[in-house]
Amino acid sequence: MNAWTPLRRAGLPTVATAAAVALLTACGASGPAEDTSDGTGGESAEGYPMTVEHQMGETEVPAPPERVLPLDAAFVDSTLALGGNVVGFTTFSEDVTELPDYLRNSEWNTGTADDAEPVGLLWDLDPELVAATEPDLILSAEVRHGDGYGQFTEIAPTVMSETTGAIWKDNLRLTAQALNAEDRAEELLTEYEERAAAIGEEIVESNGGEAPTVSVARFAGDEEGVRLYTPTSYVGVILEDVGLEPGPGVDTGTDEIITYHSQERLLDLDADHVFVATYDDGGADGVQESKEEYQSSPLWSELEGEITEVDDGYWISGVGLIAAHETLDDIAEIFGVDAQR
């Protein structure tokens, strides 16, 4: 049974009101974490209970979270990067049963997700599965699950950012607040930024002292055309951290994370290096057919830049620190420079 009504990819997920709360309780939701004080008024762990300020207000986290339920890839990434224990996650496809390989196998994953189970699609959560994870902290973004915030707080302390994507560094910091790991988050971000800059310096040196231009295109089955990512996107931030220049067709003056380009505007994708990502729709939304149609266009053959297929999972959808490091690995390999590990 599912009391949380989806709006599919076209919009945001919504949550039924009182019925959903009743269902969650009936399905075994444990509610907010129990008092774990020592009985004398003292705290059971340093820093707790703590109050976290976030997009939806303030949330008290009474004890160190041991079972974290991140409902967006950004917070799965952040939790694992900070050494937390992930007990559930959302997916983009119903046939996905485990976290992506890059998350599970990355050296930057210092957390655990051995017992993590999917709790539904990103836009269509299953309340029974959410309850079954028995979380003591829920993480998400208002843009993803803001309509369900009140219901989530009936299950466990819930913290939400405004959105995901380009603010992934701030989302890591927000996760760190709830996990009492703020110093560690700053260490991780410094390590990442220094690594990105070092890779960029080698790329510039190998390119005769000039930063090459790059663009990131994505085929996702959109009627509007192929997506071209701007500097205000998640991957745009990574490329900027490396010090690479946007291609001439990339809109650097917009607040939008993507612009759409029809077949007639394919030359807007051109740059010294064109990175191409493809959303895996499982064959359901015609993404591959659309990609083949665009790539068979005469204008595609006129692109002068070096075209490289990249992993959509972490280049586009990962939106976190671990995914950013995996993207840096690819960038170093593509340009033939040291990965600076």
Could you explain the architecture of this structure?
Helix 10 (287-295) links the parallel strand 13 (273-278) and strand 14. The protein contains twelve helices and 14 strands. Helix 7 (168-179) runs antiparallel to helix 8 and helix 8 (182-206) packs parallel to helix 12. The chain has helices spanning 18-26, 73-81, 101-105, 127-132, 142-145, 149-153, 168-179, 182-206, 234-242, 287-295, 312-315, 321-335; strands at 50-54, 57-61, 68-70, 88-91, 117-121, 124-125, 137-141, 158-161, 213-219, 226-229, 245-246, 258-261, 273-278, 306-309. Mean pLDDT is 88; it is low at 1-44. The radius of gyration is 21 Å and the shape is globular. With 341 residues, the protein is an alpha/beta fold. It folds into two domains: 46-187, 3-Layer(aba) Sandwich (Rossmann fold), CATH 3.40.50.1980; 198-335, Nitrogenase molybdenum iron protein domain (Rossmann fold, 3-Layer(aba) Sandwich). 33% of the residues lie in helices and 18% in strands. The strands form four sheets. Strands 9, 10, 11, 12, 13 and 14 form a six-stranded mixed beta sheet that branches. This is Iron complex transport system substrate-binding protein. Keywords: Coiled coil, Signal, Transport. InterPro entries: ABC_transptr_periplasmic_BD, Bact_iron-sidero_bind. It holds the Pfam family Peripla_BP_2. Residues 1-18 form the signal peptide.
